[in-house]
Write a structure and sequence with these properties.
Blueprint (H helix, E strand, L loop, with lengths): L3 E10 L2 E11 L4 E5 L6 H9 L6 E6 L5 E3 L12 H7 L2 H19 L4 H16 L5 H11 L15 H15 L3 E5 L7 H13 L4 E4 L3 H7 L2 E6 L2 E6 L2 H35 L2 H6 L1 H34 L22
Parallel strand pairs: 3-7, 3-8, 5-6, 6-7
Antiparallel strand pairs: 1-2, 1-4, 8-9
Helix pairs in contact: 2-6, 3-4, 9-11
């Protein structure tokens, strides 16, 4: 069973239609990236998944007890709260679970056949395993260091820059590890080395992700599935950005081929109509109807093919670092700079 299922979902804001009858699911350990032009509904899809926005029609089905967290574009912190406290405050459930686990271990040493204690102990073990929380203090120290926050750990978060505050929020979510993590442009405000650390952590800890990103290399490294929003519908492609482009190219090629075959068949059928005797035509009303349908489809196909071509061009242009240069080799780049 999927962690989240959206079934026949509609959504619109006033007169603007966003989704019409979409179906979408997230399975455990999937890492899904959403792509589409600005205003197509990427953030809206995220908020429907998180439960922050209700669909106008259709169903949102969520596994019982599921925890979904989203990285805010502009996180808000309590005034005076330090960086370390902001992170540790988000880990209360994990810390309490560790404390209870230690208590149970002591109790079981004296009453090792107590079924209730054994069951609770097993549940806590699974919880701590999922969050990889056995060395939580070491993880906190590493993430502070890797996100360049160690020097600010005793400083109030609200006095940091917007980018630093967002790194604090991201660090908290990564340590908290919800069942599904929603990330909108997570590589913003991260340098090359921070991005590589983020990739390593997301893969090693087996996060279930739904994300929006224009960093093609990050997507290729992370995504197991790419979901495109277009014309109020969703299309799903296996893999990351490069795989997505290849599959769209293949789709375009298949549509070209199908259109060519349709034109050949239509030419043959129309020739049959021109040569057909009146009596035979009366007995083949169904065939005549199919010819009319083929004519309509032949009119629509070129527009559909042009549309897919434009989508491909837009996606290639929209994603950054499209020249294929490895991020490890480029730390700083300026193009077309002029100075007068």
């Amino acid at each position: 069973m999927a962690l989240v299922d959206l079934l026949e979902v509609d959504k619109q804001f006033e007169s603007q239609i966003i989704f019409q009858g979409i179906n979408f699911h997230i399975d455990e350990y999937e890492r899904i990236v959403i792509v589409g032009r600005n205003g197509s509904g990427k953030s809206t899809l995220m908020k429907i998944v998180s439960g922050d926005i209700e669909p106008d029609a259709g169903k949102r089905i969520v596994r019982q007890g599921l925890k979904i967290e989203m990285l805010a574009q502009q996180p808000v912190f309590e005034a005076g709260l330090t960086v370390r406290d902001a992170i540790e405050n988000e880990l209360t459930e994990i810390q309490e679970a560790k404390k209870r686990y230690e208590e149970l271990s002591t109790l079981l040493a004296e009453d090792f056949e107590n079924k209730a204690l054994l069951e609770e102990h097993a549940q806590l073990t699974a919880f701590l395993d999922f969050h990889n929380a056995w060395n939580l203090d070491d993880k906190i120290e590493r993430i502070l260091k890797e996100f360049d926050l160690k020097a600010y750990e005793d400083r109030p978060v609200n006095l940091l820059s917007g980018g630093e505050q967002r790194r604090v929020a991201l660090a908290s979510l990564l340590l908290k590890k919800p069942d599904i993590l929603l990330l909108d442009e997570p590589t913003n405000h991260l340098d090359v080395y921070m991005v590589e650390f983020l990739e390593e952590l997301l893969l090693k800890e087996k996060f279930t992700l739904l994300l929006i990103s224009h960093d093609r290399y990050f997507i290729d490294r992370i995504a197991t599935r790419t979901v495109e929003i277009d014309d109020h519908k969703l299309r799903s492609f296996k893999g990351g950005y490069e795989s997505y482009l290849q599959q769209k190219e293949a789709l375009l090629h298949a549509m070209h081929k199908e259109h060519e075959n349709l034109l050949k068949l239509l030419k043959a059928e129309e020739e049959w109509l021109r040569r057909g005797v009146k009596a035979r035509l009366k007995r083949n009303e169904g065939r005549k109807k199919r010819v009319l349908e083929m004519r309509e489809q032949a009119k629509k196909n070129p527009a559909m093919i042009r549309k897919i071509k434009l989508e491909l061009e837009r996606e290639k242009h929209h994603f950054n670092r499209e020249d294929g240069v490895s991020r490890k080799k480029v730390l700083f780049e300026i193009e077309h700079l002029e100075k007068r």
